[in-house]
Specification:
Length: about 250
């Protein structure tokens, strides 16, 4: 079985980003970048399936500018077999990414596609669902547990009321939640080995995909500064402030 895992190059979750002075975007010029944490979980799950003998080939795919190779090399160091970078400097929105992944899937014909449920930079949580719609494949989102037996995938997912279990016949698409697994530590020897693993570069034009943005961002703004809290003397004062100042009741 071949597994395709989509990964995104994002600002590291420990970095506090700042909006550019002209409000045209987020300043990431000197920011530390890393693999999206949810996508790292997706890579780990594919590797575990390979260790169980269920998956034989793991292909990781990223879409974006050339620095995305860093993220792909991280996934290769974790244990993926090969990588594809769809290189473009254009602003990629979820639908464009889903179309690029669809084009790669047509070439590679994977039986299992795993994505992180969302990226920590835009928090869109759309690409996996859009990809399932474009390819007309079954999907299971927010997976917290995954088992595969005889071409049948069973996914446990967290919902507001508790847990939900879904089952479908592969090929299919799964998006991962935080509780699915804990990604392994990447060792230096594996980082060195990853440099020799194949990394192919394609372009949207080669795949026949138009990635022109459909949504225009007008401006970026810092979130409002949070006011310091106060201690009130009694319940009556609290209710008065909630009514007249906070206006929440």
């Amino acid at each position: 079985m071949k597994a395709l895992v989509a990964v995104k190059h994002v600002v590291d979750f420990n970095v506090k980003v700042r909006v550019k002075s002209d409000k045209s975007g987020v300043d990431i010029a000197a920011a530390k970048m890393s693999i999206n944490p949810f996508d790292e979980i997706a890579v780990e799950e594919a590797i575990r399936l390979k260790e169980q003998g269920i998956v034989s080939d793991i292909l990781v795919v990223s879409c974006g500018a050339s620095p995305c190779q860093q993220t792909l090399r991280t996934a290769l160091a974790m244990g993926a077999d090969r990588a594809i970078l769809v290189e473009t400097s254009a602003e990629l929105q979820p639908l464009a990414v889903a179309k690029l992944l669809q084009a790669v899937m047509k070439q590679e014909q994977p039986q299992l596609v795993i994505l992180g449920k969302q990226a920590i930079d835009d928090d869109c949580n759309q690409t996996g669902q859009m990809l399932a719609a474009l390819t007309d494949l079954p999907q299971a989102t927010f997976a917290s547990k995954l088992t595969i037996e005889a071409e049948q995938a069973t996914v446990t997912r967290e919902i507001d009321g508790g847990l939900e279990t879904l089952s479908f016949t592969l090929p299919g698409i799964i998006t991962t939640d935080l509780r699915l697994n804990e990604p392994r530590y990447v060792t230096l020897p594996n980082i060195m080995k990853a440099k020799k693993k194949p990394l192919e570069t394609l372009t949207p034009e080669q795949l026949g995909v138009d990635v022109t943005p459909r949504i225009k961002t007008l401006a970026f703004n810092e979130p409002p500064t949070r006011k310091a809290g106060i201690v009130v003397a009694d319940v009556a004062t609290l209710v008065d402030k909630l009514k007249n100042e906070a206006k929440v009741i």
